[in-house]
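Q: My collaborator sent me two sequences in one message, no labels, and asked for predicted structures for both. Can we handle them in order? The first one she listed is below.
A: Yes, handling them in the order given. First sequence, followed by its structure tokens:
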Amino acid sequence: MFDENEKGLSDYLDLLRRRKYYFILTFPILALVAIAIALTLPPIYRSQGVILIESQDIPSDLVRSTVTSFAEEQIKVIEQRVLTTALIQEAVQKHNLYPDLRQKASPTQIAQKFRSNVSVNMVSAKVMDPTRGRATTANIAFTVAFYDPVSAKAQAVANDLVTTFLSENVRVRTDRATETTTFIREEANRMRTRVQVLEDRIAQFKSEFSNSLPEMLNFNLSMIERGEERLLGIQNQEAQIKDQLHLLGIELSGMNRYLQAPVSGAEMSGPQRLAALQNELAQLSNRYSDAHPDVIRLKGQIEALRETVGSSSPAGQIENPQYRQISLQIESLQRDLVRMQTQRERVQQEVDEYRERVAQTPQVQRGYEDLTRDYESELRKYNELRSKELEAEISQNLETENRGESFVLLEPPLAPADPVKPNRKKIAAMGIMLAGGFGVGLMLLVEMLDGGIRGSRRLSGILGADPLITIPMIMTHKDDLIRRARHISYAVIAVLIVIAGVAAVHFFVMSLDILWLKVMGRINLM
């Protein structure tokens, strides 16, 4: 069984014979309409200026520019600034653009129309990268163009755009360099204030902990060592004085104060009692300190007995000179001992004070190092900012004097002689192709909508059996005349199509005489 949808070459030929009039009637009309549209479209002129991107005059390793953005980025930024609605309105009013559109469109729509007619394109070239040692693509220039139906207006607007790009580039680079310098200067001044605050804090810290600073550690340790040596010397002197007091006390205890001594077993007189107490005090002082209760008690008894006895001698007796001399030595040694004790306490206090300074030194050192570390860090940043400020000022002078990367007008916009839009040749060719496609599509659509059964294969596919006999079409004399007339009409249409094609090539592609010369030249070369 044959597939009812399967078609062969003969089926398609039959289809073309049956539906040829749909193509013959639609194709010429649509082709002529396409050609008419291509011929009647208004011309659009394009005026273009070329701006060269010049690199920095002074080597960048000597003076670096503060404008670090790429040229393409700068051009895009300037393009956005130039094509603002306000500036576009001024250009439209100045050059009287879009007079019909301005009567019915809003400023935003007019601005969109203006932007669609502006073209900014980069011009790239293969250059050798000195850092990498290989070829790379670099932007060396860019074009600024404007499209308009009037050639003079296209040139005028393109001139204004080119001028605006050049001036805006200088202004943007100068402003950016100035802003950079101002920013760095403000940051440097702010950093200087912070450095001064840290200097004040360090000075206050040194004033508060001047004796415990790290640089005073060796001095404090040496003073502690010297004080301990002095304490040791004072303690030795105290021991010697106490030994002398002990010996003198023993000697004084075996000696009568007066020359006439009392009878053995009798009660001791006041001076003798005073001498005995002084001897006992000397013995206790060798063993205990002045704060001992027995020492304090004996001193109180001695003072009370001295007030009672006084300095006079008993009647009929004289004071023993040797006793008096030893007593004076004891009193002198006791005064020396008190002075030594006072000196020892003062030295001990000094040693304790220096030890306290040494004990505070690690904590003071930590705080001091924190302050100095912050100060050194801030000072380093401040010096870096001052150095950057100087570089920024040099870069600002570089941009102000137009010595950095700049835009230079290489080719000013000219009044175009020929339009660039529309491309009438392409429009006409596409129209003809669409007309042919529409004619073929119409033939196929009519064939698909026709529900008739044509051919024995179609009938066999529907019935599931082959017909017994097929009767071919019987051509009459009238049918022959009609077929001959059709062939003549086909030939006329083919001739017209060839003539139309030759005319289209002559008017839209190339003049026939030039085409003939080229063809003959190729033949001669062969």
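Q: And the one she listed second?
A: Here it is, processed independently of the first:
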Amino acid sequence: MKNVKKRVIAVTACAALVGAGAGALFWSRSHQAAAPVQAQVEETAVPVNVQSPSQGSLEVVAEFIGRVQPDESVNVFPKVAGTVLATHFEVGQQVKKGDLLFEIDPADIQTQVAVAEAAYNMAKAGVNSMLGSTLDLQRLQVDSNLRNAKNAFSNANKAYNDYIDEYDPSVEKLEETCDELYDSLREAQAGYQAASAASAAAKKAYEESITLGASAGAQGLRFEEYQEAKNRAAAAEAAYNSVRGAYEQAKTAYNQAKDGYDVQLDQLRSAMRSANIALDAAEGTEEITNEKAIPEAEASANAQLQQAQASLEASRKQLEYTKVASPIDGVIELKNVEEHGIASQSSPAYIVTNKEIMVARFNVPASAAQAMEAGDALQIENGSTVYTGTVIEVGSMADAQSGLFPVKARIDAQPGELLTGVAVKVSAPTQRVQDALLIPIDSLYHEDGRSYVYLMDESGCARKTYVETGINDNDRIVVTSGLEASSRLITSWNPNLLDGVKVTDASAQPAASSEPEKGTEASSGAQEG
């Protein structure tokens, strides 16, 4: 058993051995447990070793196959394809960051640069023209239209106000004249009507004097009165007709003046409205031109210039790419280009590695990836040489084909001591518990799929106690339930060790123990890890 504990075994071999050992132990101890207890127990107590469970940490170590790589390795791809003019380093040579590795013929790219420069100069000239004379003329035109619209509105407004100031008094005077003549007309009409009535009365009196046979003198008097009344009526009629004519003329003049005034006033108002609309349009055009059209034109022109400039800079950058330098300090591991050959963007021209720090890359299942974390210590074996290492990266996404998670560990080795691509064996912790209750794995027994141990009780008897267990490292196993830190665990095996048997703590006796020597692994009943 002691030799078994010291062996370093792979996870799969360990699992097989645990299964085989557990089966053998189950068969042996289940038969032993099933054996009837002897009717008479010897008075001599069974000597056993007793100890309390320990408190501590436990981890399970598994082995994986890894590959050694430099932590910093760069595939140098040319950013432009072309004919190689010269190479400056060979495989195995040391390079510094910025050292020129090789050069590509720049002839074709120089032509592209010349074309881009011409396009940029043309774009620059066009932009200068647009931002200069073109926009200046547009501004002048807009400003001129706005000034003209303002002047037109001002003139229309002035003409309207001047017309009102000039023609209002004359129309009002004509209206007053019409009113005065109308009053005169009414007076003349009343005088005419009175004179006509007087003439009719005189005529009637005259005619009555004839009818009544008045004297010639009386008739003559009546006739004279009639003639005078008739003349007054004629004069009143003439006066009335004269005033009426004057009134009609004045009324006609007023109506004509008023109608003409209204028409002209409407025309002036219409002209002023049109001028106001034109002014609003000119102001809107000026606002749109200055706040939107011109800035947009400037932005478009600048964008065109920037595009041409970017194209030129890109061409010049392509020219810079014809000289390919090392991106890191390191060693040339691979060279794929030769003078006069073709450098392709699809394959690395050089591979440069920095071997100051070497790492081992390996893949682990999900359970191991969950248990590992950066900073974990591990062991790397390269043949007979064993190195210590530290986990520096645990992948969080499984490989699509293998379903395993990548892990990277730093190797504590001298620069140049390990070769790139060498396969190594990595021993890494895949399970761990902290502050756990630990017992020797040899003290654990199995029965009907359950695990149990023997404890020494206060009366000095062995007591069979079932427990729940966790992980083990082939020497110790974690007990998750069934024991306490103060429990007195029997750690040695004896063929007479049964539940209720009297036992004595041989480890506490100064004399040599009388415990019989263990036999084969199958008959011992202890579980191998």
